[in-house]
């Protein structure tokens, strides 16, 4: 039997790497998508050195064609996508008097819009039991005015995940976002490994008591 597959979109050296390792330890093959080819290759080869099956493709998440092609390639190679995780966001330190509408839309494209592209590409390879997860943030509830676009991204992401879950639920596919109510920092309650475990657990909730949004308070 082929290994289950997780696609991690926005896989960086922090939480994305921790989540890839958590699923890898569970026997999943890990497919990574991120913008930086060098950092992506570094992460992928490190995972392989740890005995985790890993593949990767660099893509700008605002390039719909490139992102769609990357996810489709992973699905076509493996034959299935069992978990799609969306991780990216943009931190731009601009308050509402400094932030332009173009910048806001650009940030929302990365933090939210890319999930639509990735989901639509992944859906043909997802079956009942498949899961979609996303990294949420306390910025959705308590935005910092000096990074106004981040709160918009995370509030919109939570909303979109609810719509995704309602759309896919009849087919046995569920979606969840985890609101991280703290700042990621190694060695704390918000260590990336601990947050990754919370995301892993959220995607494995019992179907009969599924919650579309879960808080992680450390």
From TrEMBL:
Pfam families, per the entry: adh_short
Keywords for this protein: Oxidoreductase
Gene Ontology MF terms in the entry: oxidoreductase activity
Superkingdom: Bacteria
Family of the protein in this entry: Belongs to the short-chain dehydrogenases/reductases (SDR) family.
PANTHER family: 5-KETO-D-GLUCONATE 5-REDUCTASE (PTHR43669), ALCOHOL DEHYDROGENASE, PUTATIVE (AFU_ORTHOLOGUE AFUA_3G03445)-RELATED (PTHR43669:SF3)
Name of the protein in its database record: SDR family oxidoreductase
Taxonomic lineage of the native organism: Bacteria, Bacillati, Actinomycetota, Actinomycetes, Propionibacteriales
């Amino acid at each position: 039997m082929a290994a289950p597959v997780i696609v991690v979109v926005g896989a960086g050296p922090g939480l994305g790497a921790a989540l890839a390792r958590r699923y890898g330890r569970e026997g999943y093959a890990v497919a990574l998508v991120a913008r930086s080819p060098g950092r992506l290759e570094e992460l992928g080869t490190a995972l392989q050195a740890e005995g985790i099956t890993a593949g990767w493709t660099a893509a700008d998440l605002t390039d719909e064609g490139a992102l769609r092609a990357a996810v489709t390639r992973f699905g076509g190679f493996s034959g299935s996508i069992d978990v799609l995780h969306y991780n990216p966001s943009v931190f731009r330190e601009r308050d509402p008097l400094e932030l332009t509408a173009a910048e806001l839309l650009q940030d929302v494209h990365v933090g939210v819009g890319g999930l639509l592209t990735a989901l639509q590409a992944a859906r043909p390879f997802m079956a009942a039991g498949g899961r979609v997860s996303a990294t949420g943030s306390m910025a959705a509830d308590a935005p910092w005015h000096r990074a106004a676009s981040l709160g918009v991204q995370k509030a919109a992401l939570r909303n979109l995940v609810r719509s995704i879950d309602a759309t896919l639920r009849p087919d046995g596919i569920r979606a969840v976002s985890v609101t991280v109510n703290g700042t990621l920092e190694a060695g704390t309650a918000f260590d990336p490994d601990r947050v990754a475990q919370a995301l892993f657990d959220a995607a494995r909730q019992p179907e009969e008591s599924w919650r579309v949004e879960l808080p992680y308070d450390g």
